[in-house]
Amino acid sequence: MRIIFIMSLKIKCNDVVIVTVGKDKGKKGKVKSIYSSKKVIVEGINIVKKHQKSNSKLNNSVSGIVEKESPISISNVAYFSFKHNRSDRIGFKFINGKKYRFLKSTGEIIK
Predict the structure, then answer these.
(1) Is the separation of the CB atoms in 31 and 10 below 8 Å?
(2) CA geometry: angle at 39 spanning 67 and 29, to 5°?
(3) What CATH number is attached to the domain comprising 103?
(4) How many CB atoms lie under 10 A from the CB of residue 74?
(5) Which pairing describes strands 39-42 and 28-35: parallel, antiparallel, or unpaired?
(6) Number of domains observed in the structure of the chain
C-alpha cells in the first residue's frame, strides 16, 4: 500500500498570481479554482479553443469553437503582492495555535 502525503497548498482561491513559465509568462490573474492534482485555473490565463457541440440534455445552446481557461500546474505560478509589485514566496506560521500564511521576503501576514 502506498501512502501519499498531500502538503497544504500555499496558493488559495481568489489569490492574484503571476505566471512564471510558459506562453503566458508574466501575465497576472486571479485563481478561480484549485484541483487536487495540484493544478489551478487562473482568469484569462492558458486560454484554449474547444470545439463544442450543442447538447439539448444539458441545455447547452452554445455550439462552435469556444474559448475557455485550461488548468496549469501550481508550480508554474507565484503569489503576486500588489503592495511590493512583485512575486513572492509564501510560508506558514503558527501564532496562538492558528496557522497563517506569510510573505517570506517581508514576514507580512496574508489575510
Answers:
(1) no
(2) 60
(3) 2.30.30.30
(4) 18
(5) antiparallel
(6) 1
How many residues comprise the chain?
Answer: 111
59-75: pLDDT as tens digits: 767 788 999 999 999 99
Q: How many CB atoms lie under 10 A from the CB of residue 76?
A: 18
Judge contact between 16 and 28, C-beta under 8 A: yes
Query: pLDDT tens digits, residue range 99-110?
Result: 999 999 999 999
Helix, coil or strand: residue 52:
strand
Q: Is residue 6 part of a domain?
A: no
53, three cell numbers: 457541440
**pTM here?**
0.79
